[in-house]
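Quarterly update from the structural biology core.
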Amino acid sequence: MLPGPTNVPNRVINAMLTPMINHRSDDFRKLYKDIVNKTQTVFETENDIVVLTTSGTGAVETSVLNLIKKDDAVIIPVNGEFSTRLADLIDNYGGKTIRINSPYGQNPPIEKIEEVFEKNSNIKALYVVYNETSTGTTLRNLSKLGDLCKAHGAFFVVDAVSILGGDELPVDKWNVDVCFTATQKALAAPPGIAPISVSKEAKKYMIENPPPSQYLNLKRYFKYYSDSFETPFTPAVSLFYAYQEALNIIIEEGMQNRISRHRKCANAFYSGLEALGFTPFADADSRSNVVIALNYLPGIDDKKFRELLSTKFKVLLAGGFGELKGKVFRVGCMGEVSSYHVMRTLSAISSSMSILGVQPIRDGLSVANNVLNQ
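Predicted structure, tokenized:
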């Protein structure tokens, strides 16, 4: 029950047993075209898709490297570990971030972002971490932010590493220029693949202003795909097959059904955990449906609690890190999460509390079960 890597369906694992093929063959071209088409469906976009053999962090760096130049002004809301890292990365590449800081667990009012746009006529891009994995916080105004960027002629870049496939993100409808994710989160595939969608405007800029890089140079990927439906470098072919099967599962379920399932499981987790006595870390209007972050109760030690869950009940949860280390724990509610995962996790948490001498306030399992059955 980690917020990545998540559980991977057997269908996806078995897809990696497909015999190896030549990445300059018709077999690979057919595979890659199918993946691109299905990724467009999941992203809800007609934009170009690049599928990188890299981690989510590699996709983050790729977006910055290809879009941000020296002294470019970039707005970025900062409210957790990953948004802080992203802002630092932009500065390291020579960009000039305008950080809109808010307390962890909260999102900045959109008025603050509007104010920065009004005071600065040279904004190159607005970067946002859609789902801040470290705090279980999700930005709930992406549509308005996309409109804001379009009105001011700025690129809108969305880090959706830990949320795409588990919550709403219609890329074209929300005017997202660059959006990227990673396969080991809500897409429920093994780590190592990072798809990126790029709008026509962003693509034109990247082709005209290529970065001093080979492997992460998106201009090369655009050219190879348009010329021969290939990648410029050797891809992780087995992972491509796994990703293709994960996409098949998502499309079979349907995006709206998948989003509803994640939302229902998240509501059950929040309701059940609050009944046990825990309080969510994030504010009510900012809580994530894919990463459930809870404050620890007095008397529960982080290391003992999560070790007990792991060794006795075979349930893995994530702790906090940075300034939240030892203060919160995080439950991954993404990928193939279902009623089974919710109830088994809550049962393990409730039992662990009793073993540690901390009595639950109410029966969290009954509360969660009522939510799941609504």
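The mean pLDDT is 97.
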